[in-house]
Amino acid sequence: MKVTENEIRPEAMFNEYLRLAAADTIAYFKNAHRETINCPACGARGKLLFDKSGFQYEECPSCKTIYVSPRPVKEAFNSYYTDSPSTKFWATTFYKVTENARREKLWKPKALLVKSTIEKYQQDNTVKNVIDIGGGYGVFDEEIKNIMDVNIVIIEPSVHLAKICRVKGFHTIEKFMEDLEKDELPPERNCFVSFELFEHLHDPQLFMEKMYKSMKTGDMFIFTTLSGMGIDIMLLGEQSKSLSPPHHLNFMNPKSITQFMKKIGFHMLEVTTPGKLDIDIVDKSRQHIKDKSWISLLEYLDEHDKEEMQTKIAELGLSSHMMIACTKN
User: Fold this and answer.
1) Contact at 8 Å (CB) between 23 and 85?
2) What is the pLDDT of residues 75-129, one digit of tens each?
3) SS3 assignment for 124-175
4) Taking the CA atoms of the chain, what radius of gyration do you get in angstroms?
5) Listed residue (170, 134, 176, 175) closest to 152, CA to CA
6) How many C-beta atoms lie closer than 10 Å to residue 300's C-beta?
C-alpha cells in the first residue's frame, strides 16, 4: 500500500502543530534547568550538530546516535506532555482530522505487523494481553483487538488522550510508564507495545530498565521509533521535521539500539526499518537538500522507481522508521 506523508500528516495542520510546539518550547523550557548528557546509547561524549528552537542536537562519534544535550530536567517535560497547547492540539484536532487516514494507512498495517511478529516468536500462542504504552487515540488498540483475541491495557499520561481512550472503552492507566506499579499489570503473558514514544523519552535507560522490571520471563516488547540513520534525516539534517524539539530527543539506529537494549538485559529478536515515507519526505523537501546529486536523482526517477528505492531503503535498514522486537528471557 503506497503511503504519502500528506495523507497522514496534512502539511498545513502539521505546520500548525509545529508552530504551537515552538511556542511551547519557550513557555515550558526557556527557564528550565538543563543538564549535559553523554550518548544515551553507548555513553560516549557527543559532538554538536546544530541548534534548533533553543535545543542542541549532538551526534555520537562512536555509534552515530543523535540526541539532545544539554537536556531540560524531567519535570519540564512532564508538564509539557500532560497539558500543553500543542499536546492538546495533537489530541483534540490533529488526531481527530487524520484518524481515518491514519487508521487505514498506518494502524491497520501496523496491527497486522505486530500480530505476525507475535505469532512468529510466540508460537505457543500464550499472549493474553497487549499493553500499549502511550496509547494516544487508541486506534491501534481498536485494530489489534479486531484481529487478535487479546485484552487491552493502555498506559497514557496525557489527560486529553487518556479521556479519549476511556470513552472508547479501554482500560486506561493515566500514568507515565516510569511511575507504574507492577501490580497494576495483568498477571498473564503480556506483549508490551509502544509506537513513536522512544524518541520522546527524557531518560531512555530509566524507561527501559523500568520496562525490563515490569516484564515477566517470556513477555515480549515490540516498539517503533525514529532512526537517526534514516535517509530522510541524513539528507535533510537540521531541516528535517523529525528533528523537532521538544518532542524528539533520541535518534538511535539499528546498530546502536541493539547495543543499548542488550545492555539493559533484553534478548533481541529483530530490528527492522519497515518505513514507507522516506523518499516521499525527501522528494517534497528538495529545496533543503544540500547534495545536488540527490536533487538530480529525484528529478530523474519516475514514481515506480521511487517506490522501488523506498523498498530497498527499508530492506537495507536505512529508513527513519525503525521497529524493534525483543523479549525477557
Assistant:
1) yes
2) 998 888 777 888 888 777 887 778 788 899 889 999 999 999 999 998 777 899 9
3) CCCCCEEEEECCCCCHHHHHHHHHCCCEEEEECCCHHHHHHHHHCCCEEECC
4) 19
5) 170
6) 8
Coil, helix or strand at residue 254: helix
Residue 173 CB coordination number (10 Å)? 21
Identity of residue 35: E
Q: Which three cell numbers stand for residue 303?
A: 514514481
Residue 182, CA distances (Å) to 70, 78, 188, 209, 215 in order: 32, 21, 12, 13, 9
Which grid cell is 188?
498473564
Residue 325 has which C-alpha cell? 522486537
Fill in the amino acid letter for 91: A
Question: Which grid cell sits at 295?
Answer: 536533487
User: What is the C-alpha to C-alpha distance for residues 50 and 68, in angstroms, rounded to an integer?
Assistant: 10
pTM over 0.85: yes
Tell me the angle at which helices 204-214 and 254-264 cross, rounded to the nearest 10 degrees. 50
